[in-house]
Design brief:
alpha+beta; Phosphatase 2c, domain 1; 3 domains; 6-stranded mixed β-sheet; 5-stranded antiparallel β-sheet; 23 strands; about 20% strand; globular
Length: about 600
């Protein structure tokens, strides 16, 4: 008999303390088509990605199913830890399983079994990822994951099996069976002492919940090295109960939950604040050239990396905020994101990764100006110029969104235009990173971190930032570039209920520009705004809808509609004449009244 195993786990002294055991056997069959594996990485990956456990079961009608189950487990354990640290477990795991499913399906299609799915490269898979204070489960098929807590055994997965009779059934979902795969996902809070059980059907179909609980509790509290024996006891009990299938069991015990959050919070605890810096100072391998900017929150310096000879930007926290761990973590988050997002339109982190003695960030030096300064220098930009800037900002946002990062603070001060005209997003400290938030011990509290005039309405209702909220901020920025004003004035930040937000009225650029001013604006600018294509104004109106579900859903759609007339907007009725040309409207009304008066006088005279 052979044991198919890719077990890589062992007890470690880490912030999340786990013990695991496993056992696999062919049972009464000649070949073991099951496979299982586990990986508990060292820090900081344990905090950022968690520990992963997977179990797969081949189908008995296939002679190549053991290849499928081994590939599924190995691919999940290898590829999951190669995904971006910024990704959530659900996104990373689902992407890996979809890729694995595509490979298995292609193998079947290119084999003699292409017309017989039940003989191809098909298997079930159940994966468990323990990260921070939560358990994440991804599942397809009829292998199972249980949780034992407080003496109660709960089945966490649902069997994807259709029963035709008491004896006959088939898998309704499995890896490699179809070109596309739907993966069940759920997330649950962890408690110290939780035990998770992963089994193939050869085990759980023969043992009742009561029998499993009795066997698990019989040796509860055993040493981590004995969990392998515990798993073997379960498998042998199923064999004695009459199982004629392969037998695989994995046991995972949560010995201790992490006492601190992600890697960034650990750096905040370990690194002291830097001293006050002056020109020509030498600091951690850098020579300070000059101070570029200083506020009550941070100090920004132009410096020279003495090792590489490159100019860089150093950002240090102010002493006043040295006791605010949340702010210091957001400061470090800027460089963390910049190192993981590769885009010409997102600021890059400094190349040097020398060990640091103080808490600060290093980024590339951008020879240019902020969009705020550019707007002062160019108060009436042409529509085509605005399009070029907005498109580049959108590319930067798309790069962040692909990494499951929401900017949350898009405004002119956080956009740079370099000497070549390239637009880059900077100041990523307010960004919401799915992977980091997921590793936090507590759920993030919705807070408005961005500038109120550019913040989406739903965030004032306590919702977290989203792609839709970033798109709203970009649309506000576009509107402001074209008009110098804001689509709802100062009203959005005052609306703290949905009822109040329903009363917001978009102020049209093309036909309502008189309302945008205090009466002393440049009439030439108003004429230019009225000359904007109606469909451009409607594109902005749609992207700026207070309800995020009625808003333009994709950045690519918004950018496309800024250049190409959307037929939906072209079909919309034009605004009334009174709004488009109030003078002509009242002249017409006066003319009609004059004619009416003349007619009435004629009738009176005639009578």
């Amino acid at each position: 008999m052979t044991q198919a195993s890719l077990a890589l786990c062992s007890p470690r002294t880490t912030s999340l303390a786990l013990s695991c055991g496993h056992y696999s056997d062919a049972g009464r069959k000649a070949e073991n088509q099951d496979c299982h594996g586990s990986l508990i990485p060292s820090e900081p990956q344990l905090t950022l990605k968690g520990a992963a456990f997977a179990i797969a079961d081949g189908i008995s009608t296939s002679s190549v199913s053991q290849i499928a189950s081994e590939t599924a487990v190995k691919s999940f354990l290898d590829d999951y830890f190669c995904t971006s640290d910024a990704w959530s477990v659900q996104h990373a795991g689902s992407q890996v399983l979809r890729a694995t499913n595509a490979w298995l399906y292609a193998q079947t299609q290119n084999s003699p079994f292409r017309y017989h799915k039940d003989k191809g490269y098909v298997c079930t898979l159940s994966a468990l990822v323990l990260k921070g204070g939560r358990a994440h489960i991804l599942h397809a098929g009829d292998s199972r994951i249980y949780r034992l807590r407080g003496g109660a055994l709960e089945q966490l997965t649902r069997d994807h099996r259709v029963w035709l009779s008491e004896q006959k059934s088939y898998l309704s979902r499995a890896l490699g069976a179809d070109e596309q795969i739907a993966v069940d996902y759920q997330s649950l809070p962890l408690q110290a002492g939780d035990r998770f059980l992963l089994t193939t059907d050869g085990v759980h179909e023969e043992l009742s919940s009561e029998q499993i609980i009795e066997l698990l509790d019989r040796h509860n509290g055993m040493e981590a090295s004995d969990l392998d024996l515990h798993a073997e006891l379960l498998a042998r009990a199923a064999l004695e109960a009459g199982s004629d299938d392969n037998l695989t069991v994995q046991l995972v015990r949560v010995d201790a939950l992490p006492s601190r959050g992600a890697d960034l919070s650990q750096q905040v605890d370990m690194l002291p604040l830097p001293p006050s810096l002056q020109a020509r100072d030498r600091f951690d391998g850098y020579r300070i050239s000059r101070q570029l900017h200083a506020t009550s929150r941070s100090h920004i310096y132009l410096a020279l990396d003495e090792q590489s000879g490159e100019q860089v930007i150093l950002k240090t926290p102010s002493i006043d905020l040295g006791g605010d761990p949340a702010y210091l973590e957001r400061l470090l988050r800027e460089e963390w994101i910049a190192r993981r997002v590769n885009s010409a339109h997102v600021i890059k982190a400094g190349a040097s990764q020398r060990p640091r003695n103080y808490l600060y960030t290093v980024s590339e030096y951008i020879d240019g100006q902020t969009l705020r300064q550019w707007m002062i220098d160019n108060p009436e930009p042409e529509l085509e110029t605005v399009r070029g800037i907005v498109e580049q900002i959108a590319r930067g946002l798309q790069a962040l969104h692909r990494a499951e990062i929401i900017h949350q603070d898009l405004r002119p001060d956080n956009v740079m235009i370099d000497a070549s005209g390239t637009v880059k997003l900077i100041d990523l400290g307010s960004a919401l990173v799915a992977g980091i938030e997921e590793a936090a011990l507590e759920a993030p509290e919705p807070t408005v971190l961005g500038t109120a005039l550019y913040t989406a309405p739903e965030q004032f209702l306590g919702e977290l930032g989203s792609r839709a909220s970033d798109l709203y901020s970009l649309a506000v920025l576009t509107y402001h570039l074209l008009s110098g004003q804001f689509p709802y004035g100062m009203e959005v930040a005052k609306c703290r209920t949905q009822a109040q937000q329903h009363k917001l009225r978009y102020r049209s650029l093309a036909y309502g520009s008189d309302e945008l001013t205090d009466g002393d604006s440049d009439s030439a600018n108003n004429d230019k705004l009225r000359s904007l294509p109606r469909w451009v104004d409607e594109t902005l109106r749609h992207a700026l809808h207070p309800n995020p579900y009625k808003r333009t859903q994709e950045l690519s759609e918004f950018i496309y509609d800024l250049r190409h007339p959307n037929r939906r907007y072209l079909r919309q009725s034009r605004p009334p004449l009174m709004q488009r040309h109030p003078l002509r409207f009242w002249q017409g009304v006066s003319a009609v009244l004059a004619v009416t008066v003349v007619v009435l006088l004629a009738q009176l005279t005639g009578s």
